Fibronectin type-III domain-containing protein (Polaribacter sejongensis), 226 residues
Amino acid sequence: MRKAIIILNLCTICFLAVSCSSKDDENKAPSIVQLEYPTKDLLCIDHTISFNWSDAIDLENDAIEYTIIIAKDRQLIDVVENRTVSASELTVTLEKSVAYYWQVNAIDVDNNQESNSEIFSFYTKGDGVTNYAPFMADLQSPENNGNVTEGTVDLVWEASDINTADTLTYELFFGEDATLISIDNTLTVKSYSVSVVSGKTYSWQVNVTDNVGAKSIGQIFTFTVD
């Protein structure tokens, strides 16, 4: 009996040692990079741009590659560049007088990725352009495809404009599933409270207009009510 107990204890110790070793040996993803240039909401004088970001840190010192995505929308769907590079910089020539959005993700040799970097917006300067449309609204809460509790939900967004003296107004669309209804097109605040019902899915969108009439059409987010 005593021999059986000793064998059982040894097996348990071996199992725990292997389990701990497996956890210790698990490859960690590289750190999230910080976008450095173009800075957030920058008006770039030259449309040939040297993108720069911080080096990611990998605890195992694995080789790291970076995937940079440049798009014409904040959801990074209308992509103009999607490249994987080994250095933390890349020079790209873009169109003039266009709003762009960019993101960089670090990946190690095992394709491990910690999380996405922030998304920064910037404009390329246009010939003779004095007024630029606002950037697309940055929908912040509720998050896309997220879940909320039944009752009152605050729709929250951020917005910015290269022309800092411009006054911005917001047009909010909201509705069940994919049906969007204009709620208000004269909002001057960046939040709006709505009532939601359990078991339903809602969509929302915010368009931004400056005092000259230039408008940016926003992305569409959805969320589900528990």
User: Anything to note?
Assistant: The chain is about 10% helix and 45% strand. The helical segments are 2-25. The two ends are 54 Å apart (CA to CA). Residues 1-8, 10-24 have pLDDT under 50 and may be disordered.
